[in-house]
């Protein structure tokens, strides 16, 4: 059976006026509009998501430091867990909360991944703050092996008391079949984490064609669950949140195309599917309806 995840929190918060496309990004809502975060979670649940992800993606020192609030990163990550837990517990349907452990500098930029000595204590603090509120950890949008290992080790250590599952989700080069954004292959990435007791492997925030190829590759390397949640944007080389280069929306990825792409993920072996940046509740609702009609939707 297939489990539906939620969509892109950041873009949805921007659409509702609770976040900006630069600066603190989705963390702005944690400070100014936390109830809107709960509303977005609830809307994704109503659409059919049975895993929602904490709004901790930009609760990191590098973003919060722009307004002198870097010291609040663990506090705000913990709050993101509380808000997601509130939404999940208020649902009539069973809903799991995934604690997001994100890149600690910029997304899609393996060249900007911070040193291990700096990353490990930050990831440990984030995971500890999220741990009381979540059902699993999701190390997401990992652009290189080193980044994913640092996040995964912290999640495993924090989750050991409650035996929380830990999933790693890599972001891929936009060219299908070429591996992670770092240029490292999926085979090498899997091998580098093979000694860790992970629960599964996913791909996210990448062109759907690249994710489809990635799922096909990873399914040949592991019997663990796999999945994918694509974005709706083309990510140019050199992108940073506050830089001059901006992402461009794909004209060929409306709701129908998203649902079709997700079905191809499932055909390649995925059991977890959802959306990333730009994928809203209406897209998740269409996906859930499609899977329900097919009789493959987990409840």
Structure report:
With 299 residues, this protein is an alpha/beta fold. It is 41% helix and 13% strand. The protein has 11 helices and 10 strands. The chain has helices at 9-15, 27-32, 34-47, 61-64, 73-89, 116-130, 145-159, 186-192, 208-218, 255-267, 281-294, and strands at residues 3-4, 51-53, 96-101, 136-142, 166-170, 200-204, 226-229, 233-234, 248-249, 272-273. The strands form 2 sheets. Strands 1-10-7-6-5-4-3-2 form an 8-stranded parallel beta sheet. A two-stranded antiparallel ribbon has the order 8-9. β4, α7 and β5 (166-170) form a beta-alpha-beta unit. α3 (34-47) runs parallel beside α11, α6 packs parallel to α7 (145-159) and α9 (208-218) runs parallel beside α10. The longest helix is centred in the first third of the chain and has 17 residues, at 73-89. The chain is globular and about 50 Å long. It starts with a strand and ends in a 5-residue tail after the last helix. The mean pLDDT is 93.
């Amino acid at each position: 059976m297939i489990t539906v995840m939620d969509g892109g929190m950041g873009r949805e918060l921007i659409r509702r006026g609770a976040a900006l496309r630069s600066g603190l990004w989705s963390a702005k809502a944690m400070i100014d509009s936390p109830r809107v975060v709960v509303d977005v979670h609830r809307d994704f649940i109503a659409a059919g998501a049975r895993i929602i992800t904490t709004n901790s993606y930009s609760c990191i020192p590098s973003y919060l430091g722009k307004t002198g609030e870097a010291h609040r990163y663990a506090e705000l990550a913990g709050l993101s867990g509380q808000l997601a837990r509130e939404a999940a517990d208020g649902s009539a349907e069973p809903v799991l909360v995934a604690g997001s452990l994100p890149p600690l500098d910029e997304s899609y930029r393996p060249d900007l991944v911070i040193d291990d000595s700096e990353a490990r204590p930050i990831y440990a603090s984030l995971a500890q703050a999220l741990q009381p509120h979540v059902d699993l950890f999701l190390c997401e949008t990992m652009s290189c092996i080193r980044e994913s290992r640092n996040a995964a080790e912290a999640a495993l250590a924090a989750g050991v008391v409650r035996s929380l599952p830990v999933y790693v989700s890599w972001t891929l080069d936009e060219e299908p079949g070429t591996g992670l954004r770092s240029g490292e292959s999926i085979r090498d990435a899997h091998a580098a984490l093979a000694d860790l007791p992970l629960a599964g492997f996913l791909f996210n925030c990448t062109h759907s064609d690249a994710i489809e190829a990635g799922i096909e590759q990873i399914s040949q390397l592991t019997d663990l669950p796999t999945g994918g949640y694509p974005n709706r944007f083309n990510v140019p080389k050199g992108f940073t949140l506050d830089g001059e280069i901006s992402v461009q929306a794909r004209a060929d990825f409306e709701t129908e195309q998203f649902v079709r792409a997700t079905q191809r993920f499932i055909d390649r072996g995925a059991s977890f599917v959802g959306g990333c940046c730009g994928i809203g509740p209406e897209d998740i609702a269409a996906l859930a309806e499609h899977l329900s009609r097919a009789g493959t939707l987990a409840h």
